[in-house]
Design goal:
Largest sheet: 5 strands, parallel
Strand content: 15-25%
Bound molecules: S-adenosylmethionine
Structural class: alpha/beta
Distance between the termini: 61 Å
Strand order of the largest sheet: 3-2-1-4-5
Helix content: 25-40%
């Protein structure tokens, strides 16, 4: 095929897009489709944990089996994200028969549509096609992104090593960066975190990192899904530490991308110690933590002049009476300031009862912010006495932050 592609911006809101395959390619492609508001039908016998989490949260429809032609009923677009060329060809044959454009991960020449390399800046989306060469498209995209981005710090990253082992990470080879990805909005990663991400050979990502950041990785980057779904399946921390160390010792530049800030209930310290023990140099890039960003996104400042002179961030992962709990809930009940509780939904009834039992007023304003800074953010406003009951009535789910204190409502008219 020698003719030029015809560029379009597909307005997919509410329109059915079928994704066939539930592996690494689908994990990268689905977030952009969801961001565009597409009605995604995912056909695959198995899903990665990141896709599974989206299916469990009702963001997409998952059909846990192999593709059948009827899956394309009502579809506007098909993304084939399977390795098996025979399976991919049969999906694209059905798509062609029905005049539905088909993107193929396995064979660009057989596809009727190509996905461009993309960079997004607020309302502006720049999409680059490289004439069938994805690397060329990425290179041009990166140059445009750098032109549009805010100017980078002139000194680059601290402690940059001299040696290069010839991986695509170049000067960063054989090291690890623990990068905070921010709370959910892909634009809330730091400039430095973003730059290191674009230089990575390997990205080890948590479930809570913004999916759109992964969508923009080079195709040759190894993406390791280290999802730790709350109360669900988890990959052992030791295994993650080992992946970081092994890849770095093999000469790769590894970015460990973590939701929010790496050191706020992020187990970043354990990963740093594991790398240090193996002699692997580590750079830590702080992130915008949900403990501050989630209240802010709901219009709640964690401190406010004349209202709160302190804020305390606490994990609600363990119930107040759990023997392993390190939190002095009785002491927290005596504070006047703001209490921000992460991972606290499951134990919220016990937490609020304990705070009230130790003297915090049940009338204290409280709020719950779910999926803060994303397109699906939800906010519940209540009081300490009622918030646990209101939460279940409103069916709010993790990830969510609970804020307790007079700052809730401090900015209300
Ligand atoms: C394991 S902790 C990691 C926190 C992360 N390191 C940070 O600094 O935001 C996960 C918890 O962070 C909170 N969280 C993370 N992202 C969130 C978001 N976008 N909206 C609300 N809460 C969020 C939730 O309480 C969630 O259960």
């Amino acid at each position: 095929m020698t003719s030029n592609p015809y560029p379009l911006g597909l307005r997919l809101h509410g329109r059915r897009v079928v994704v066939v395959g539930g592996g690494a390619v689908a994990t990268r492609r689905v977030p952009a489709l969801l961001d565009a508001g597409a009605d995604v039908l995912l056909v695959a016998p198995e899903l990665t944990p990141a896709l599974r989490a989206r299916a469990d949260a009702g963001r997409l429809h998952w059909v846990p089996r192999r593709f059948v032609p009827e899956d394309l009923d009502g579809a506007w677009l098909v993304q084939v994200a399977v390795d098996d060329p025979i399976a991919a060809a049969s999906v694209s044959a059905v798509a062609a028969e029905r005049r539905i454009f088909c993107v193929r991960a396995d064979d660009r020449t057989a596809a009727t549509a190509w996905t461009p390399a993309v960079t997004r800046h607020g309302p502006v989306t720049v999409a680059v096609l490289g004439g069938g060469d994805p690397r060329r498209a990425m290179t041009v995209r990166d140059a445009i992104r750098d032109l549009l981005a805010v100017r980078l710090a002139p000194d680059g990253i601290a402690g940059r090593p001299d040696a290069s082992t010839g991986t695509t990470g170049g000067q960063q080879a054989g090291r690890v960066a623990l990068v905070g990805a921010g709370p959910g909005d892909p634009e809330l990663i730091t400039v430095k975190g973003w730059r290191l991400l674009t230089e990575a050979d390997v990205v080890v990502a948590d479930r809570l990192v913004p999916g759109l950041l992964l969508d923009e990785l080079r195709p040759d980057v190894e993406l390791v899904d280290a999802s730790k779904i709350p109360y669900g399946p988890s990959r052992a921390q030791e295994e993650i530490n080992q992946i970081l160390v092994d890849r770095a010792l093999a000469g790769a530049f590894v970015v460990r991308l973590k939701g929010g800030d790496p050191y706020v209930f992020g187990r970043g310290g354990e990963e740093l110690l594991a790398c240090a023990a193996a002699g692997v140099p580590v750079t830590v890039v702080p992130g915008v933590t949900s403990s501050i960003a989630a209240p802010a996104a709901a219009g709640i400042p964690v401190t406010h002049r004349g209202v709160a002179h302190e804020f305390t961030v606490v994990s609600g992962h363990l119930a107040p009476d759990a023997p392993a709990s390190l939190v002095r809930w009785d002491a927290l009940a005596g504070l006047h300031g703001t209490l921000v509780i992460l991972m606290g939904l499951k134990n919220l009834a016990a937490i609020t009862a304990t705070l009230i039992a130790h003297g915090r007023s049940p009338q204290t304003p409280a709020a719950v912010v779910q999926e803060a800074t994303t397109g699906t953010q939800r906010v519940l406003r209540s009081t300490l006495g009622d918030v646990a009951a209101d939460l279940s009535a409103a069916d709010l789910r993790p990830p969510a932050v609970v804020v307790v204190g007079d700052v809730v409502g401090a900015l209300d008219g």
